[in-house]
Specification:
The complex is a heterodimer of chains A (276) and B (296). Chain A is mostly helical and 276 residues long. Chain A folds into two domains: 7-60, no CATH class; 62-272, MetI-like fold. Chain A contains 14 helices and no strands. The longest helix of chain A is centred in the N-terminal third of the chain and has 33 residues, at 7-39. Chain B is an all-alpha fold. Chain B is built from twelve helices and no strands. Chain B has helices at 5-40, 58-64, 67-99, 105-117, 120-131, 137-144, 156-185, 188-196, 201-228, 233-239, 250-259, 264-295. Chain B has two domains: 36-65 and 263-296, no CATH class; 78-250, MetI-like (MetI-like fold). Classes of the chains: A mainly alpha (276), B mainly alpha (296). At the A-B interface, helix 1, helix 3, helix 4, helix 5 and helix 6 of A face helix 1, helix 3, helix 4, helix 5 and helix 7 of B.
């Protein structure tokens, strides 16, 4: 049954809806402007004419003007490498903290949480010197290594493991499973959604990370996309905004497309990861 | 059933062995460098064959007399004081906007959230274009209102504000999702009761929504505060700290002193200030979260 809506109320609703849409449009404006420039010839970059032709040439020019293919490869290797290493290292530590009341575990957990606040890029100089001593400057390993033992990951997985009934663990042990087998057969399957969430957060964080890779890398072979984009935009390109916009969109595209396809999973993951 | 002695020992050993890789890495890249940074701040910067010498508080004296440090510190405080409430307010507004039964909610949500997904460097370049003097979109828009072209990033009066806008743009949509999740948790009964009483929208917000969202607001505020003191990407990509240090922020100044001036002793002293600031926020968080628990 529909209630007759008074004219005044209908007007308020219309105006507030319009205001919200205007707000959202204003919010999207910088991005829309870049998208406009990237898909139109340079001549139309700052000149709005609906009749102007669409083109992919700016992307082609950006792609050939700098080794973006290599940057993409570097970033993909980097984010997948970090994620895989984080899964292993954080799982082991989280399992120990969740299931063994070992000597000093409380203090250890508190010390681990310090890293939530003091991320490796806050201590850039000392970490750079450490990396130099290890001979890992200008390597992908060097870019990723400080982030592998992630306090966030350990915290997240520890909370998850703690919520898994101890009885399942005991049952597996009763049947003679070792610690590794128990983790593999009992804990991993039950914590799967958390791993997905953590993986998404980790990949988006490291896809976008900038300061630390900027300091550690200094060659095309190791530079991730963010640093590559910065080098490209500041040195190679002068001020052709169409090409720079195309490059900026290109570096963001994989994450953006993944987000558009799986936006529910992304948002759930960020929420789950809320403690960061 | 008491575990035999050997098993108990085994638990300690197994626990430490499992945690060992993480412990070693965390110590190497977080705890040891943090302590070393503080120690280094009491030494001079080594030059060539001249090793670092203990100089007490000299680095800190230099710092107190360094106008750029004070500018960076002031800029950073301003950055936190302005971007944190602004991002929170806008995030809440966005959440309230898209939470109702509005037409095209999904598209609106997307418009608000998408900036969060972009790498900061990409967002910075998009905004560089948006801010371009004369023909950037922002200047084209204000020209319609009869205002002349402004060099947003080239003018010391507007440059910091221009960077803040980028930060708020990137963050608000991220915080929005936490508010959205919290809004779903508000029992509908409360709103029904308010409607029964004919309470105004503002009253409903002030007496029901806002108090119930308080834990989320605290959480978001702490996160925004930490982020505000770690801002650096957009400074490097957009202004390089200029014009005339108008956009220098703490972490950026550390980066500059460490990797452009190679003054490691002074960089250590500056880093110690940053570490202390972050530690202060950690205590604040502890205090606030503690209070929240008492409220329950």
């Amino acid at each position: 049954m529909r209630r007759a809506v008074p004219i005044a109320e209908r007007w308020t609703r219309f105006i507030s809806t319009a205001a919200v849409w205007l707000f959202a449009l204003a919010w999207a404006l910088p991005l829309l402007y870049a998208i406009w420039a990237a898909f139109h010839p340079s001549a139309f970059a700052t000149h709005f004419d609906l009749a102007s032709p669409l083109t992919l040439e700016n992307f082609a020019r950006a792609w050939t003007a700098a080794p973006f293919a290599r940057y993409f490869l570097n970033t993909i290797l980097l984010v997948l490498g970090i994620m895989a290493a984080q899964f292993v290292i954080c799982t082991l530590a989280a399992f120990a903290l969740a299931r063994f009341a070992f000597f000093g575990s409380q203090i250890l957990f508190a010390l681990i949480l310090v890293q939530l606040m003091v991320t490796p890029d806050v201590l850039i100089l000392e970490n750079y010197l450490t990396l130099k001593k290890m001979g890992l400057i200008d390597t992908l390993t060097g870019v990723g290594l400080p982030y592998v033992a992630s306090a966030f990951g350990i915290f997240l997985l520890r909370q998850t493991f703690k919520s898994i009934p101890k009885e399942l663990d005991d049952a597996a042990r009763m049947e003679g499973a070792s610690t590794a087998q128990t983790i593999w057969r009992v804990y991993l399957p039950l914590a799967r959604p958390v791993y997905v969430a953590y993986g998404l957060v980790s990949v988006s964080y490291h896809w976008n990370n900038f300061l630390w890779p900027l300091i550690v890398t200094n060659s095309v072979e190791t530079r991730p996309l963010t640093v590559g984009l910065q080098v490209f935009a500041s040195v190679d390109q002068g001020i052709d905004w169409s090409v720079i916009s195309a490059a900026a969109l290109m570096t963001s595209a994989p994450l953006m497309i993944a987000f558009l396809l799986f936006h529910r999973a992304f948002i759930q993951s960020f929420l789950r990861a809320g403690i960061r | 059933m008491a575990a035999p002695h050997s098993t108990r020992l085994n638990i300690h050993l197994q626990g430490w062995l499992l945690a060992l890789p993480a412990v070693v890495l965390l110590a190497t890249f977080t705890h040891i460098p943090a302590v070393e940074t503080v120690i280094d701040s009491f030494f001079s910067t080594p030059h060539g064959k001249r090793a670092a010498a203990y100089i007490g508080l000299d680095q800190y004296r230099t710092m107190l007399a360094d106008p750029v440090f004070w500018l960076a510190f002031r800029n950073n405080l301003l950055y936190a004081l302005i971007t944190v409430p602004l991002a929170i307010g806008l995030a809440l507004l966005m959440a309230l906007c898209v939470n109702g039964g509005l037409k095209g909610r999904a598209a609106l949500r997307l418009a608000f959230f998408t900036p969060t997904i972009l790498p900061m460097v990409a967002a910075a370049n998009i905004w560089l274009f948006f801010y371009t003097p004369d023909y950037g979109l922002l200047n084209q828009i204000i020209r319609v209102f009869g205002v002349g072209s402004v060099n947003w990033l080239g003018n010391p009066a507007t440059a910091l504000g221009a960077l803040m806008a980028v930060t708020v743009w990137k963050e608000a949509g991220f915080f929005m999702i936490f508010y959205l999740a919290a809004l779903q948790q508000v029992p509908p009964v409360l709103y029904e009761a308010a409607r029964m009483e004919n309470a105004s929208r503002w009253l409903v917000f002030r007496r029901i929504t806002w108090p119930l969202l308080m834990p989320t607001t605290l959480f978001v505020a702490i996160n925004a505060l930490i982020n505000a003191f770690r801002v650096v990407d957009q400074v490097i990509a957009m202004t390089g700290g200029g014009p005339n240090n108008a956009t220098a922020l703490l972490l950026f100044y550390i980066f500059q002193v460490a990797f452009s001036f190679w003054d490691s002793g002074y960089a250590a002293a500056l880093s110690t200030v940053l570490l202390s600031t972050l530690a202060a926020i950690a205590f604040l968080q502890f205090f606030l979260l503690d209070r929240r628990i008492h409220y329950r």
